[in-house]
Amino acid sequence: STLHYFVKPLLLLSLMVFFFKQCNGLQKFIRQLMLLALIFSLAGDVLQMFTEHDPLFFILGLVAFLLDHVMYTIVFLKQRDTTKKAFLFIIILFVYAFGLYYVIQDGLGEMHLPVLAYMMVILTMATTAFLRKESSQNQNYKLVFLGAILFLIWQFITSKGPSK
Asked: 23: pLDDT confidence band, cut at 50, 70 and 90?
């Protein structure tokens, strides 16, 4: 388990280096937001590793992840397709989120509102990933959208709330 404290941050650091080397074609504002999002992701990962020591780490990690998703949402909104409709997609996400919230609600204690806020931000991020333009780089769209959905599923499946 000690290795976990080194490997998990190194994975995100390597993603940051990879992104930095590959992001030359992006607008400066988009690059900055993406790097900021990755920094918040790293902070969230590190903070969440210490939740068992103090529930405050859970809250701080939740805030860091919330901020990274706000950054992703802004990036995705900058790339949105204004003709795309998301009503059915949003309904599916809310049904999924409601079901998962129902499953985890008993373990949340006083964290109901922060977890609900976090869930709303993640749902918004996934929706904006869906609303991005499908351009000549269609693989980019598919990978970002798939990543958003997998992250959504992973976060909700592994969500246990703070340690009591």
From this structure: confident
